[in-house]
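Order emerges. For instance:

***
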Amino acid sequence: MLGAVFGYLVAIPFGLVHFENVVAAPWFAAPHWTFPAFNDPNAWGMALSIALIFIATVPESTAHLYQMSLYIDELAAEMGRKPYNIKELIGLNLVADGADDVIVGLLGGSAGTNYGENNSLMAITRNYSTAVLMVAGGMAIVFGFFAKLVALVNTLPVAVQGGLGIYLFGIIGMQGVALIQSEKVNLFDPKQLAVGAIILICGIGGNLALPSGVFPFNVPYLFPNGIPAIVFAAILGIFVNLIFLIFKTPAVRGDQA
């Protein structure tokens, strides 16, 4: 938080912060609501295309829950408490995510999962209280009606956001490494290396290198404008892993290698 405040103050004399929208904004305003255009002939095709993003969000949501379970149980052990094992609630977690997407989508919002940025904040602060999260969510909803505050938050320069992103998203990656360690994933296994390598290169590389982060494979009705890199990576990872499950190779002993 201090880093964000300091970066914001430094950005002001460099002309990176603009307050025109803050001055023009009213004190209070209701958020912009939109509702599904079911009468649009393209609506159902677009809805199906968005729904297929679950191929990427389900693994993401699952990984986030396992990450939080790992960190919460580690903190519980330090405090002499029993582990919570929230990773066992994966089914309930996915149902909650889906229900949230239905409600938010009907009100014009974007679909999402239990975001990794929030996971990072919890790992940084070591605060995993559900009461705190519920209060924070309530505060975010209330503050959304204060138009000047919303405009002020939007003055945060991209450079400062980028600095925060380095920390937050870097911690998401480190949490993934911690999860691999805790689950004892065998990274000496060529099969594990193959699946992980394909997901990393197609997901991260495709998102950075391809125009708009989309693979140019047009699938009518499903992905008419191409397949997003994160979805393409998830599909390839599932497919390659399925190949290894179907065509199992015999184990090789050390003296046979």
Q: What stands out?
A: The mean pLDDT is 86. The CA atoms of residues 78 and 136 lie 26 Å apart.
